[in-house]
């Protein structure tokens, strides 16, 4: 099939199935939304959720073994401790490839990783 015939086929399909008038014609057009709700500051007063025991244990282990590291640990499994997102920034990562950085963290957490279903790891040097 030639390019010209592909364009012709596409225009036939569009003619047979026109877009409803209420839908935006471009993917960059603003999405239609219901009437905006009144502003409420109640969401601002909520406290951040407490860290789970698993998050605290992983964070303290990494901070203990990587002195001066910026560590962020989140249980993204819904609280059951089977999947964590971990971000680590440390001087020891300077000059190392990402794979070597991840291996270093994986070696520190190898006993904990055995009990996990998944791990999202982000590492970087300052």
Automatic annotation (TrEMBL):
<dbReference type="Pfam" id="PF01722">
    <property type="entry name" value="BolA"/>
</dbReference>
<dbReference type="GO" id="GO:0005759">
    <property type="term" value="C:mitochondrial matrix"/>
</dbReference>
<dbReference type="InterPro" id="IPR036065">
    <property type="entry name" value="BolA-like_sf"/>
</dbReference>
<dbReference type="InterPro" id="IPR002634">
    <property type="entry name" value="BolA"/>
</dbReference>
<protein>
    <recommendedName>
        <fullName>Bola-like protein</fullName>
    </recommendedName>
</protein>
<comment type="similarity">
    <text>Belongs to the BolA/IbaG family.</text>
</comment>
<dbReference type="InterPro" id="IPR052275">
    <property type="entry name" value="Mt_Fe-S_assembly_factor"/>
</dbReference>
